[in-house]
Amino acid sequence: MIDGSATRTLILTLEANSDVARRCALLAEERGPDFAVRWLDAFSRWLTVLSADQLVIGTSHPFSDHARSFPYKRQATLLVEYTPTEMRIVRIYFAGQDWLA
Q1: For the whole model, what pTM was predicted?
Q2: How far is C-alpha 96 from the geometric centre of its chain's CA atoms?
Q3: How many angstroms separate the CA atoms of 80 and 68, rounded?
Q4: By the 8 A CB rule, do 61 and 53 touch?
Q5: DSSP H helical segments within the chain, as ranges?
Q6: Scanning 34, 40, 77, 86, which has its CA 20 to 30 A from the CA of 14?
Q7: Cα(28)–Cα(84) distance, rounded to whole angstroms?
Q8: CA torsion sign, 25 to 86 to 50 to 60?
């Protein structure tokens, strides 16, 4: 049984932080800095809500029992590792991005 009061700690790897920074730079250039800040705020709030929930969502990864992937608003695919206490965002792949890069 899942305790509704339990939460996972949200962790973004250095690579995931770099993915977000590149996306924000692109959005700031294409749509303006205010839009980039609003996007980052919405994305951060969404991740915080997900990490507060003890559910494990996404499609299981073929090479890891703990890794899953799931989309963010048809804009990105997140690669996530779950433990009982952590939700670790490993990478964030945006539309048109090479998954091997």
Answers
A1: 0.81
A2: 17
A3: 5
A4: no
A5: 14-31, 33-52
A6: 34
A7: 36
A8: positive
